[in-house]
Amino acid sequence: MKTLKFIEVKSEIGAGTRGASMGVDAIKIAALDYGSNMFKHIESIEVKTENQLLFEASKTPYAKRISGVLAIYERLANTVSQTLKKNQVPIVLAGDHSTAGGTIAGIKMAYPKARLGVIWIDAHADIHSPYTTPSGNLHGMPIAASLNEDNTANRVNKPDKETIDLWNKLKKVGGISPKINYSDLVYIAVRDMEPEETYLLKKHKVKLFTTNEVKRNGVEKIARDTLAHLSNCTHIYISFDVDSMDSSISKGTGTPVRNGITEKEAGSLLVRLVQNEKVCCFEICEVNPTLDSENLMAENTFEILQKVVSQFTF
User: Fold this and answer.
1) Which tens digits make up the pLDDT trace of 55-97?
2) How far is CA 157 from CA 69, 151, 196, 289, 300, in A?
3) Quick check: pTM over 0.70?
4) Contact partners, residue 168, CB within 8 Å, separation at least 6
5) Burial class of residue 248, CB neighbours in 10 A (0-12, 13-18, 19+)
6) What is the fold of 3-309?
């Protein structure tokens, strides 16, 4: 029988807005407010971060603090891999979304021959590289890192040698690159993309369900179609960025975007998806309580997390 394990990654060096490192604790506070003992009953481990780098100037403008992100990738990948090898299901509670590449690396380390499907529920495609990024923030790059995608055909930046060397190491964490295929990637609620990202999604015919499709067709059909698209995969990883939800729900995330899904749609969708036996890892990220005076985003996120956890046998 599988058990769950929380992996806490309170990192925010990949984001442009401060405060995501406090997201995990905000979710725990929401749990206390709801009278839940979930965090008492599920084992938890915390991955060491590099948030001290925020107090230093970044030397790599097209991949800010990438040396720190690389260190976290390696630690997180090892932790995820060890958790999976113990027949536990990792539930990753992350700060910013940059560390998701480390989660994917860990799954591939545990299951090197796996065909890994990725369900990316997010307002953003996160498929930039140092060659295309408009911000230099690593939380916009984990999918590109996992795909080994530079997108040099659309390059707008000229990163220096240090940046390129670290980026190449980032893509190779876990010893496998690429770790996923475009055909095994599904986006849900993505609606804020740059032309460089749109180019890749169209070129590779990536499966994408818009917010309007979720509302028009319903959560059940979106979940069914998503899983059907990934039917040839041996394992599935779900990454849920809270900014996939509409900006009207809460201000408690660093990059809110209008026209997102509701918290009810998010919860119902995730419950339906995690019931699939191939789901081996689930992740929540980008709660930022410093932008949210009433902790509403953390409360909404906790309710969703509670629903997801209840679907697993532990």
Assistant:
1) 999 999 999 999 999 999 999 999 999 999 999 999 999 999 9
2) 20, 11, 12, 33, 38
3) yes
4) none
5) exposed
6) Arginase; Chain A (3.40.800)
